[in-house]
Amino acid sequence: MSVWEATLSAKGQVTIPKEMREALNLRPGDQLIYSVVDGEVIVTPKNIDLKDLAGFLGKPPKGPATLEEIDAAVVAAAGAAAFDMGDDGTSEAAE
Questions:
Q1: What does the pLDDT average to over 6-20?
Q2: How crowded is the C-beta side of 28, counted as CA atoms within 13 Å?
Q3: Nearest to 93 by CA among 18, 37, 14, 13
Q4: Is the pLDDT assigned to residue 93 strictly greater than 60?
Q5: DSSP letters of 35-62?
Q6: Could you tell me if 11 and 58 are in contact, meaning their C-beta atoms sit under 8 angstroms apart?
Q7: pTM above 0.90?
Q8: Contact 84/42 with Cβ under 8 angstroms?
Q9: What is the predicted pLDDT for the residue at 95?
C-alpha cells in the first residue's frame, strides 16, 4: 500500500501528488468520486468505460431503477471497492 500526504488549501483544494497521479493514470480533466465510509474519505478515479458497468447491478428486484438509484449504487460501489477491510475489520487506509 502506498501513502501520500497533501495539504488542504484555504480554498478547499488538494493537489494530488505526481506519483499518485501516475500510479492511477490520472490526466487533466479526469473525474474523481469522493465517498465517506466510516469517517474515512475514499477517492476513486472515474476513468472507467461504461461498457464495464454492463450488468453490474443485475436485474432490479422491484423493476427498473431510477437514475438517482443507479447513481447512488455506482457511488456506493466505487467507494466500497476502494475500501478494503482487513481481517480485523479495519480499513487498510487507517493503518
A1: 93
A2: 0
A3: 37
A4: no
A5: EEETTEEEEEE----GGGGTTTT-S-BT
A6: no
A7: no
A8: no
A9: 47
Distance CA 78, CA 87 (A): 21
Residue 26 has pLDDT above 70, yes or no: yes
Q: How far apart are CA 25 and CA 45, in angstroms?
A: 9
Determine the Cα–Cα distance for residues 26 and 30; give it in Å rounded to an integer: 6
Q: Which residues have C-beta within 8 Å of that of residue 52, sequence separation ≥ 6?
A: none
pLDDT at 3 over 60: yes
**Contact predicate 44/30, CB 8 Å:** no
At 71, which amino acid appears?
D
Please report which helix (H) or strand (E) contains residue 32, including its range. Answer: strand 32-37
Distance CA 77, CA 35 (A): 10
Determine the 3-state secondary structure of 85 from DSSP.
strand
Report whether 17 contacts 4 (CB < 8 A): yes
> CA 83 to CA 77: how far, in whole Å?
10
